[in-house]
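Students often ask why we bother encoding 3D structure as a string. The short answer is that it lets us treat folding as translation between two languages. Here is a chain of 151 residues written in the first language.
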Amino acid sequence: MKKSLEVDEKIFQDAVKFYGTVLNLPPLASKIYSYLIFDFDKVGITFDEFVEVFSASKSSISTNLNLLINSELIIDVNKMDERKRYFFANDDYKKIRFEKIVQKMQDELKLLDDLKNFRKTEHKEDDERVEVYKALLNKNIANIQESLNKL
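And here it is in the second language, the structure alphabet:
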């Protein structure tokens, strides 16, 4: 892999594996995202640099960049006096990611309430377990929202 950024190979491979799994990314998208994380000075990486660094086809790079943009993992910027687009890891993604997690937990809470309200019979033991689980969800929602307010 030819590099325009200074990259630690072990950390890069760990990041590719981690983000590929956690964010459910295809291998090339995970490599692109992981590579952008090493752009500490926020200079941006061009399309052509990705083609060169990963020795991948232009269509593969394009497809994976679009996937990352649509997932809000990366952003692209056109610099004022240049035609080239520069790609950056989206600094707001951690906030977006946790907002999505909160939304999923809130959706699950609603679903649990809907199921309980629909059910005709009482199941005391099940209800107690569900209430403990709902309390855990609510506590996590509150903790995440408190942290998000600090970002």
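Translate back mentally: The mean pLDDT is 92. Keep this in mind for the problem set.
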